[in-house]
Amino acid sequence: MIMIKKLLLLFFILSPYLFSDGHIFVYHRFDDTRYPTTNTSTKELKREFEYFKKHNYKVVPLIDMVKKIKANEKIPDKWIAFTIDDGFKSFYTHGLPIFKQYNYPFTLFIAVKYTEKKYKDYVSWKQLKEIAKYGDVEFHTYGHGHYGQMSNEAIKEDMDRGLVLMKKHLPDIEPKLFVYAYGESDERVKSVVSQYNFEAVFNQNIGALNGECSDAYDIDRSALVGKAPFKLYLKFKELCGVSFEQPLTYPKDKMVRTVKITLEDKSITDAEVFISNNGWNRVKVKNGKIVYHANKRVKLNRIKIGVKVKNRIKLMVLSK
């Protein structure tokens, strides 16, 4: 009896770290080995789906997650949602049959230009109508450009062009959700996109969704490409009350010298800071403040800065 009480006590102490928030996953290509960084084999897809099924995860339509966030309601721990970006034909030929087999809902975000101009690797408008019978079709820009490098006028032109074409070819679909190309955005880009009154906007950062503190216009999605560590992703919880203060723009000399982050939870004393190409680094937190003199060089034109406290995580993107 004493042992049982001890185990129960340990369970309640550890429970915040054993169970995670809801998660959204993003796929791109399926069985297309030409592009390994964005490809998922159907064998791997089935392995993931079998795991979710065996461990009683509930796959819900993406809009159900959005409704919870907008209502500031807790998202159940075992809720997950699937998204597919760009509109590659390999989803129609290889991925969709498996989604149908498992009866899993999904949301496909299309980069309209490639369908409109009939690029051979992308779905047609006719195929999109077929896909829409089984899942939701939403908007992912017209030309898949780097919005951070485009003027406000160019962003609006791209958005308007894509939305007009969707209305023309898919008149029964009114886009409610939007994904930034490459997951890239900043405050200026967000202000332009906000004019379109989408119900929610998504990035492509590893993370989780609490629901009660999630931002409906900057929702995290974890990419499942290759043999992704999806079991690790499922352990993550959303780190609430994070303010990224430095850097806020991509470093011109590719040196991240100092990272400054403020955490709302003043009781936190230890954390880890992430910088692309440099991994996670342990840091001390004083009165909710992180000041990490990194002096780290980055290589990519799109980098991520992040903070993690135990299994709670939050990331941001900076683009050149």
Distance between the termini: 61 Å
State the secondary-structure class.
alpha/beta
Overall mean pLDDT: 93
Poorly predicted runs = 1-18
Biggest sheet details: 6 strands, parallel
CATH architecture of the largest domain: Alpha-Beta Barrel
Beta-sheet strand percentage?
25-35%
What string, H for helix and E for strand, traces the elements in order?
Answer: HEEEHEHEHEHHEHEHEEHEEEEEEEE
The CATH superfamily of the largest domain bears the name Glycoside hydrolase/deacetylase
Number of helices: 9
The Cα radius of gyration reads 20 Å
Helix percent reads 25-40%
The count of domains is 2
Features:
28% strand, globular, alpha/beta, 2 domains, disordered N terminus, five-stranded mixed sheet
Structure at a glance:
The chain has 320 residues and is an alpha/beta fold. The protein has helices at 2-18, 42-54, 62-70, 89-102, 112-116, 125-131, 152-169, 187-193, 230-233; strands at 23-27, 29-30, 39-40, 58-59, 79-86, 107-110, 136-139, 177-179, 200-202, 222-223, 237-238, 242-246, 255-263, 270-275, 279-284, 289-297, 302-309, 312-319.
Question: What does this entry look like structurally?
Answer:
- The protein is α/β, with parallel strands linked by helices and 320 residues long.
- It has 2 domains: 20-238, TIM Barrel (Alpha-Beta Barrel), CATH 3.20.20; 242-319, Immunoglobulin-like.
- 29% of the residues lie in helices and 28% in strands.
- It contains 9 helices and 18 strands.
- It has helices at 2-18, 42-54, 62-70, 89-102, 112-116, 125-131, 152-169, 187-193, 230-233; strands at 23-27, 29-30, 39-40, 58-59, 79-86, 107-110, 136-139, 177-179, 200-202, 222-223, 237-238, 242-246, 255-263, 270-275, 279-284, 289-297, 302-309, 312-319.
- The strands form 5 sheets. Strands 1, 4, 5, 6, 7 and 10 form a 6-stranded parallel β-sheet that branches.
- Helix 2 (42-54) runs parallel beside helix 4 (89-102) and helix 7 packs parallel to helix 8.
- It starts with a helix and ends with a strand.
- Residues 1-18 have low confidence and may be disordered.
